[in-house]
């Protein structure tokens, strides 16, 4: 009887060990579905734009398809790498991130009036995307290493200092992305040191509000805030134009949409509809039902990350998953809010859906890290 019990325990431990090292296929399936959804909508929303700009209706489709396949490969490769390896390069990544963000201020490539890219020719990337990944890795590593060695308040201010530098540099070019970078770092800090939440609220919230007001009311950002407060119809041919066309697209879609590929707004009314404003085309062609399905996919993605986070084997891995969750959630909220005119217009990609190679690639690196953490976690006990 004793031997039988021991054998049963050994078999159970062996089973759990095997499951522990398996890929989280539920998360992979959600990610792949989102990428396919995005590729389909990019083709639909960029069809006329690609004909006019490149004389090839599938030009952007082919590029995004290439990035999508590359992103999936990178995600699977990163998932097989122990994420602790990234900690060895945390300092280097942080220095490089600051360097890139400073460099883009002086020699950045200008696209549509915004100087946010570095690179040569078609090979370019946004340093702000690299900053998001860096903040997740650096803050998670520092918080997990120092949480038991530094006074909680000293640790909080030190990490806030680490977060503030890249956030401020990103904010010089893109306020919404700066908010995401800062909020992601703060979310990680809050989970690592929950006892200082009152001090966080007292010190961070007023600073962020005052800083945000200062940046928002500088230059073109003031115009965006004013047009949002006054309503886009107060300047329908200039500052309010894109918002109005976006709302027309959403209203036209109704419950079930006009049909895939049948959008009128993408035919020159919404400039570059395949970028940040793509959610409006989803609403127009697939209707409220299609928009809800897309949002449900994001909710499922966040849910699966929460399951992984709740089964992490150490604080470092937990904080990384929290950072990725915070980034995706914030970007979805900001993007949808801008498209529906719930907040002032600003540039923010919709994860997995908006056109863009570098943003998708960095996001897939993050998802690869989450998958790698899932393989090392106690996920088998969570189902």
Automatic annotation (TrEMBL):
* Domain of life (superkingdom): Bacteria
Q: Where in the cell is it found?
A: Membrane
The protein's matches in Pfam families, at most eight in alphabetical order, are given as: FTSW_RODA_SPOVE
Q: Report the record's Gene Ontology biological process terms.
A: cell division; peptidoglycan biosynthetic process; regulation of cell shape
Under catalytic activity, the entry for this protein gives: [GlcNAc-(1->4)-Mur2Ac(oyl-L-Ala-gamma-D-Glu-L-Lys-D-Ala-D-Ala)](n)-di-trans,octa-cis-undecaprenyl diphosphate + beta-D-GlcNAc-(1->4)-Mur2Ac(oyl-L-Ala-gamma-D-Glu-L-Lys-D-Ala-D-Ala)-di-trans,octa-cis-undecaprenyl diphosphate = [GlcNAc-(1->4)-Mur2Ac(oyl-L-Ala-gamma-D-Glu-L-Lys-D-Ala-D-Ala)](n+1)-di-trans,octa-cis-undecaprenyl diphosphate + di-trans,octa-cis-undecaprenyl diphosphate + H(+)
Transmembrane residues, as ranges?
Answer: 21-44, 64-83, 90-109, 129-146, 153-169, 175-193, 200-220, 277-303, 315-340, 352-374
Keyword terms of this UniProt record: Cell shape, Glycosyltransferase, Membrane, Peptidoglycan synthesis, Transferase, Transmembrane, Transmembrane helix
Topology in the membrane? Multi-pass membrane protein
The EC category is: transferase
Give the Gene Ontology MF terms in alphabetical order. Answer: lipid-linked peptidoglycan transporter activity; peptidoglycan glycosyltransferase activity
EC number annotated for this UniProt entry? 2.4.99.28
Gene Ontology CC annotations of this record: cell division site; plasma membrane
Question: Which purpose does this protein serve, as stated in its record?
Answer: Peptidoglycan polymerase that is essential for cell division.
Q: Which family does it belong to?
A: Belongs to the SEDS family. FtsW subfamily.
Protein known as: Probable peptidoglycan glycosyltransferase FtsW
- Identify the species of origin: Vallitalea longa
């Amino acid at each position: 009887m004793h031997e039988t019990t021991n054998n049963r325990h050994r078999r159970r431990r062996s089973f759990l060990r095997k499951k522990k090292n398996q890929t989280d296929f539920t998360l992979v399936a959600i990610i792949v579905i989102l990428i396919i959804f995005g590729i389909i909508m990019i083709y639909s929303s960029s069809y006329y734009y690609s004909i006019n700009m490149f004389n090839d209706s599938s030009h952007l489709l082919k590029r995004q398809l290439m990035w999508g396949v590359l992103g999936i490969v990178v995600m699977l490769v990163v998932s097989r790498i122990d994420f602790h390896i990234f900690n060895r390069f945390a300092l280097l990544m942080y220095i490089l991130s600051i360097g890139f963000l400073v460099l883009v201020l002086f020699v950045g490539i200008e696209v549509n009036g915004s100087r946010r890219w570095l690179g040569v020719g078609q090979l370019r990337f946004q340093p702000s995307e690299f900053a998001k990944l860096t903040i997740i890795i650096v803050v998670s590593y520092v918080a997990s290493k120092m949480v038991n060695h530094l006074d909680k308040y000293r640790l909080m201010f030190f990490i806030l200092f680490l977060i503030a530098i890249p956030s401020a540099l990103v904010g010089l070019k893109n306020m919404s992305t700066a908010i995401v970078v800062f909020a992601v770092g703060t979310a990680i800090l809050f989970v690592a040191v929950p006892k200082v939440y009152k001090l966080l609220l007292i010190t961070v919230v007023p600073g962020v509000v005052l800083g945000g007001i200062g940046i928002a009311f500088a230059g073109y950002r003031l115009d965006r805030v004013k047009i949002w407060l006054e309503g886009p119809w107060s300047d329908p041919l200039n500052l309010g134009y894109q918002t109005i066309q976006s709302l027309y697209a959403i209203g036209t879609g109704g419950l079930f949409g006009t049909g895939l590929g049948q959008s009128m707004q993408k035919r020159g009314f919404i400039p570059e509809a395949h970028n940040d404003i793509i959610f409006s085309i989803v609403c127009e062609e697939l209707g409220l039902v299609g928009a809800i399905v897309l949002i449900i996919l994001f909710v499922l993605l966040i849910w699966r990350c929460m399951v992984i986070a709740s089964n992490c084997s150490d604080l470092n891995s937990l904080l990384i998953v929290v950072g990725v969750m915070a980034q995706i959630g914030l970007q979805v909220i900001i993007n949808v809010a801008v498209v529906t005119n719930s907040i002032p217009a600003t540039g923010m990609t919709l994860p997995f859906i908006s056109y863009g190679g570098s943003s998708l690639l960095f996001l897939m690196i993050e998802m690869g890290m989450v998958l790698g953490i899932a393989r090392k976690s106690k996920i088998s006990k969570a189902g």
